[in-house]
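Appendix B.2, paired examples.
Example (i):
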Amino acid sequence: VLESEPLQKTIGEPVTIGAWVEGEGFLRSEDLVSARLTLRGPQAEVVMVMNAKLDASGNWEFQVLRIESPEGAEIADLVDAIGVQKLMVEKGALLAQLGDGRSLAGKGSYLEAIEIYADVLAEHPENAEATRLWGIAAYRLEDYETAEEKLKMALAMMVSDETDGDYAMDTGEEPSWGIIIENWAMDGEVGPLDRWLEAAETLGLIYLDTERSRRCVETFTTVIMSGEASASPRIPKAWYQRARCYLQQDMVDHAQVGARTACAKDSNLVEACKMAGLPTSR
């Protein structure tokens, strides 16, 4: 509380507490506190007014927390300021957890990474990133059923997050993600777009590995349509993976067209260039 920005701007630092405290519960260390205390700084002197209770987890919950002039005029309400600060701390802890999970997954410790993602989701069940990373880790473990479930959830959650919840959480057989995602590219939102494309690409690979070729073609078509405008480096590979999906359907001509497109976009895709019968840069 003493480090809150509105208070420091008003009275400066360092902050000292006056000798007198008026109220109930404060001096007796009770769970309910109603108090007024004087705070002094190099710029001014103010009065802090508070009504608070101690919750079951040992944290103070403030119903009233404001600073006033010695004459009683309100200067700032600190309840909102504390809420923002708390959210920033929680967000930092969440990002650290996700970072630990990514680090473990990067080392091939997918089960340990999934444990972290599960812990995050236990506290934040609507967290799209933990859901997405869990799906990708499950795919690496060839747990295709879990991976498909988590990735479908993550794709819809990400769209919902990026459209302020205006998108219906459609995880059906033929979701309409593509048009919405194109707008991310036009807005320059490369970060969310790339994360979304990686999740969709992984879902497509699940369909490829489990020989659901129609779903495979549909998913990589969505990846291509959604990422072309952003010139995402994932797009050439998506053309190649879709070509592989077509081969499962014995649609050789379609497969060769896709492979040629992939090779033209990135000649380092050796397998695509071989499929297309074209030379590579290696």
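Example (ii):
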Amino acid sequence: MPASLCEPLSFLQRFSENVFYSYLIEKAASCADPCKRMEYVTAFVVTTISSNINRLSKPFNPILGETYECLREDLGFRIILEQVSHHVNF
């Protein structure tokens, strides 16, 4: 695969973008109304899909042992990711 088809970031970076809307999960946890709670959870799921809808390029594969740290003080979270395997065994 030509490198030009790859997005200039790693899979770990792209994966960390899924938690940028984690405040929706926090709102869902504090809702007493189950319908409203489901709305927040659904909104969270849709944001993880919609943030990648126009990004058709493949991210670079992380190398074994690669780490990525994302600190978002404005959103109140810190995430540390590490590539520990390239294969999933079930």
